Amino acid sequence: MNNDLVHLRDPFVVPVYVEKKYYLFGTTDKNIWEGKCTGFDVYVSEDLEIWEGPLSAFRAPNDFWADKNYWAPEVHFYQDKYYMLASFKADGKRRGTQILVSDKPIGPYIPLTDEPITPKEWECLDGTLYIDEEGDPWIVFCHEWAQVNDGEICCMKLTKDLTATISEPMLLFHASDAQWSYHSIMTSISNDKGQYVTDGPFLYKAENGELLMLWSSYTEKEYAIGIARSVSGEIVGPWIHDTEPLKLKDGGHGMLFKTFDGKLILTVHSPNVTPYERPIFIPMKDEGGKLYIDKEGIGGLVNEL
Fold first, then answer.
1. Do residues 30 and 77 lie in contact, with contact meaning Cβ atoms separated by under 8 Å?
2. What is the CATH number of the domain that holds 220?
């Protein structure tokens, strides 16, 4: 199938060089907002245009603790295995990011531990893995606006095997710290409470060595991606924000990857309306740590910068 037929939110692409194949993960359950979920699917392509799938990547075992809101899986190759970080929730239990593992990019993925890695009393989502210059792993995640009103992005250091944390949560920034972020336009959120969304952090080491973070929130009109920069070059920051988000038409929750011929690609879902979300692939340029859209995107998503 082509891109227009792939329905998912929160796209995440894993290029596997030995196979010359791209693995596309995302939020794929039909009941993503309400009702019981089943798992995550994966799509496979050689050219980012025609995809095989959907194929089963994760199906919840009978004793799995969560049965709703299976969101935003992303997969990282680390220590010769593939690790999936994804968000889960159950009635009476906080939303959290759990780590799963597989020997193969396609799966099947199984839980690495019995519970989420994020704080038990926090509502958390969209955990991403970051490996620092010393080779130590960190989880970067969102402390959800639904609990704290002004959404946060936090980090914790992990053990080498990713089974536990070895630091307390550290606040990196609030959503409202970014000049472009606006209290949410989502109809389910009351704007007069000053609630600001943080979604989808993703770490990227720029060509000039600068550590960047892509993350999503809302402008006054639509869903968008902003860029934060670590002043210290380390995950703990401090972080400063570009004054304007990338100019995408209602597109967000993005990540960057390189094609097999070295091109830098941003993938996002758009529009941010269920069930119309589709993965979009946008050529990018990295010029001295500044990210630019390389050319017009697919389907009118991209406006000229």
1. no
2. 2.115.10.20
Check residue 251 and give its pLDDT.
92
Whether the pLDDT of residue 190 is over 50: the answer is no
Q: Which two tokens stand for residue 252?
A: 């967000």
CB 59 within 8 A of CB 66: no
Q: Which domain holds residue 38?
A: 3-300
Angle at 36 between CA 23 and CA 83, to 5 degrees: 30
Q: Which residues contact 131 (CB under 8 A, 6 or more apart)?
A: 78, 137, 138
CB-count exposure of residue 120 (10 Å: 0-12, 13-18, 19+): exposed
Tell me how far apart the alpha carbons of residues 158 and 274 are, in angstroms, rounded to a whole number.
34
Asked, for residue 305, whether it belongs to a domain, the answer is no
Domain total for the chain?
Answer: 1
Produce one character per residue of 200-210: b if its CB has 16 or more CB atoms within 10 Å, e if not.
bbbbbebeeeb
Residue 146 lies in a domain: yes
What are the tens digits of pLDDT across the range 196-227? 999 999 999 999 999 999 999 999 889 999 99
Beta-bridge mates of residue 269: 252, 279
Tokens of 229: 């920069």
- Rounded Cα gap, residues 213 and 116, in angstroms: 23
What is the structure's pLDDT at 193?
A: 53
pLDDT in tens, 134-146: 999 999 999 999 9
pTM here is: 0.94
- Report pLDDT for 294: 86
Residue type for position 50? I
- B/e letters for 39-49, b = 16+ CB within 10 Å, e = fewer, are bbbbbbbeebe
Residues with Cβ within 8 Å of 22's Cβ and at least 6 positions away in sequence, in order, are: 13, 14, 15, 16, 44, 45, 46, 48
How many of the other CB atoms lie within 10 Å of CB of 241? 18
